[in-house]
Amino acid sequence: MEVEVKLRLPDSTSHQRLSTILSPHHRKTHFQENVFFDGTNAELSSNLAVLRLRFYDLDSHSVLSIKAKPIISGGISRIEEQEEPIDPAIARQCVAEPWRLLLISSSDIIRRVKEEYNVKDNGLVCLGGFRNVRAIYEWNGLKLELDETHYGFGTCYEIECESSEPEVAKNLLEELLNSNGIHYKYSEVSKFAIFRSGKLPL
Q: Which terminus of the chain, N or C, has fewer Cβ atoms within 10 Å?
């Protein structure tokens, strides 16, 4: 189970201001491309699951993941997640021809897709995706991820923090934002849900 604090920032100005404040704690920045898949008969999405390929830093590496049963409330997201590394060249072939994913017999995720969600051979479709610039900071014992997410219909800004004590992490983040006059809202939906809706959240 992945548990994260997710706070949405209103605009690029707020994002830049927070980036500047956190700059002494910056560790690295990743350029991510996220591509999503579902069964041809929506076998995954109808069961609140999604299959994702994530490419990092111009295909330096990539990760296959399945996420399921998301719950987000009060700025805290809980979701079942399983991840596996995958060769970027193979992953790119799978984006072009999604059925190739189902040929990866060594993957526990693909085994789940077939057995748990009953996706048959040739039964995957590519839904498209979005790009994300993720700056990572280590601050007050927390790993913070400051995101600038580029959809085909606009850009969203968000700060995330995975934590086993999400309420504590949320309080620290809210204190940081409030003390610096940075407006925010609790994120109410996932990035994938925003992508599928085709519009930015209000």
A: C
Look at the pTM and tell me if it is higher than 0.90.
Answer: yes
Q: What's the rounded Cα separation, in Å, for the pair 161 and 188? A: 15
Residue written as token pair 């898949």? 37
Q: Coil, strand, or helix at residue 71?
A: strand
Burial state string for 36-75 with b = 16 or more CB within 10 A and e = fewer than 16: bbbbeeebbbeeebbbbbbbeeeeeebbbbbbbebebeeb
Q: Which residues of the chain register pLDDT less than 50? A: none
- What single string gives the DSSP state of each residue in 130-145? EEEEEEEEEETTEEEE
The answer to whether 6 touches 160, Cβ cutoff 8 Å, is yes
Residue of 131, 117, 109, 137 whose CA lies nearest to 191:
131
